[in-house]
Amino acid sequence: MSGGYMGKILKVNLSDGTIKTIPTDMEIAKKYLGGKGYAVKLLYDYLKAYEKKGIAPRDINPFGEENVLIFATGPATGVVGFPESGRYHVMALRSPLTGSIASANSGGRWGPFLKFAGFDAIVIEGKSEEPVYLEVLDGTAEIKCAKDIWGKNVFETEKILKDRVGVRSSVACIGPAGENQVLFACIMNDEHRAAGRTGVGAIMGSKKLKAIVVGGDQRPQPAKPDEFEEASKEAIEKLRSNPVTGEGLKKYGTAILVNIINNAGILPYKNWQTGVNERADEISGETLAEKYLIKNKACWGCQIGCGRVTAVKEGCFQILYSEGPEYESIWALGNSTGVMDLGAIIKANHLCDELGLDTISMGSTIACAMELREKGYIPDEVLEGLDLRFGNAAAMVEAVWRTAYKAGFGRYLALGSKRLAEIFGAPDLSMSVKGLELPAYDPRGAKGIGLTYATANRGGCHVTGYTISPEILGLPEKIDPLTIEGKAQWVKAFQDFTCVVNSTVNCLFTTFALGAEDYAKLLSAVTGWDMGAEDLMRIGERIYNLERVIMNKYGFTGKDDTLPKRLLQEPMPEGPAKGHVVELDKMKEEYYKLRGWVDGVPTPEKLKELEIEL
């Protein structure tokens, strides 16, 4: 099918075993593109249907039959020549970690292979009584028994299923963490790529769905091939000539940020007690490249190739082949826990991939436990031999597998840092927003990212609106990270544009070099629709607002658009941001005005303006 869409969505009910194909609704596609946007619209429609049946949104159990899980691609996914288009988006009605909407994104090649199988999306309803996996090959789908692979890790599962299928395919699956419903379990694909955040793997585990295998020979085509070829060449040249996408990410991967962010004084250290670590270079991208890198690796259709293939060749953390770790993983498992052994970080990251754990939430929860222990909130006997001290590399690595299997103290770590800190009487030591652990940028030294964290719909999230780009990297222009002036406008624009990218669906790294005008050219040529930059930004705003409407139905309001007390009340103790806190209230007031929200809730006038029909 031309226009970048395959024209079909697969709907699978695991409760009764039924499978049906429904047409992709092109009216929805025009308003929400695909990927995240299309999924948000479908999820809202499910909520409306439940409400008509008398099921209140707040009564939806994340692990219940009523939770819906959606795997969605966009009009860019799998289109040859659309830069960095090897991704897919996962959403669910309710996250077990946050209680809000669940949302995650992953690269590799699974997204394109779903399109090659002939579908734009897969909607999973209900839950199976026995372990199953879904096989989707060249326009056909079948639910199959997964008893023999239940309990297997991610790498074993992928190998077994790919050998069994016997054709060129890609596997998305859960590991033991998902099976055991660890609240921040992720969905893994192509071994080391993760739809990591908000516990989507735990939802998959609750449904007894071990894996989805996809593959086929169908190909999405642009509606206007000549126009698309020209737009593609322009975009790729911009990516190649950009210092971040054309040089930095190629040479050092995302871990190039370790020294950059540390030098800016915002690399959270030891559970955010400071933003400066004089030993940060020991775990930097430069050190990774010098001592552990084997080669680069790219996702499907990628010109950047930021992925790292690595090895720890000797010592107690030996691992002879792995991928990563990314910047966020190095920070969470290393800097946040005080572990300066890059070999241990690579090993822990490998275990997270093997067992199916979100590295950000995993490392942050371990760091939270370390501070809880340091301050006397967790008695040693509760730790059951796990010596959780800042800087203890062996304990950090051991904590990962204990979490996946809920072994010993791992049963507490499996709950995430918010519940962990509440259980042991110090809730303020959880560095999270709406229950989702924060990523690797201290907003006391970059105020815009603080507003992003606070207002991000899925919880503590940097990729909802990556204002680190202008605040620290100077792209598309350099702005003062320590001021709050103008940050609301930047945050809103980044959030809306990010919704466009996640609905297109392709890599957010393209936004270092490409703006809304570039995307408008590409998407107009692919879809055949005449779209300008303003049209796309309006689509992004529509998606963000409808997602917020769903959150409001769960009870989230302005009171939840906040930050941990440490960031609001404890001045940064050292570095370029010394003495600073986040002045959130002032920025949030301006942000709500720009959004057309009152106390975190979109007004009826704003929804009408955006043509959101409730």
Structure explained in plain terms:
With 614 residues, the chain is of the alpha+beta class. The chain folds into 3 domains: 8-215, Aldehyde Ferredoxin Oxidoreductase,  A, domain 1 (4-Layer Sandwich); 265-436, Aldehyde Ferredoxin Oxidoreductase Protein, subunit A, domain 2; 442-609, Aldehyde Ferredoxin Oxidoreductase Protein, subunit A, domain 3 (Orthogonal Bundle), CATH 1.10.599. The strands form 5 sheets. Strands 2-1-6-3-4-5 form a 6-stranded mixed sheet. A 6-stranded mixed sheet has the order 8-7-12-9-10-11, with helices on both faces. A 3-stranded antiparallel sheet has the order 13-14-15. α2 (35-52) packs across α20 and α18 (447-455) packs across α20.
Distance from first to last alpha carbon? 31 Å
Strand content: 5-15%
Average the pLDDT over all residues and give the rounded result. 96
Rounded to an integer in angstroms, the radius of gyration calculated over CA atoms is: 22 Å
In total, the number of strands is: 19
Strand order of the largest sheet: 2-1-6-3-4-5
Under the CATH scheme, the architecture of the largest domain is 4-Layer Sandwich
Report the CATH topology name of the largest domain.
Aldehyde Ferredoxin Oxidoreductase,  A, domain 1
Largest sheet: 6 strands, mixed
Q: Which CATH first-tier class of the largest domain would you pick?
A: Alpha Beta
Structural class: alpha+beta
**Which oligomeric form is depicted?**
single chain
Query: Can you tell me the overall shape?
Result: globular
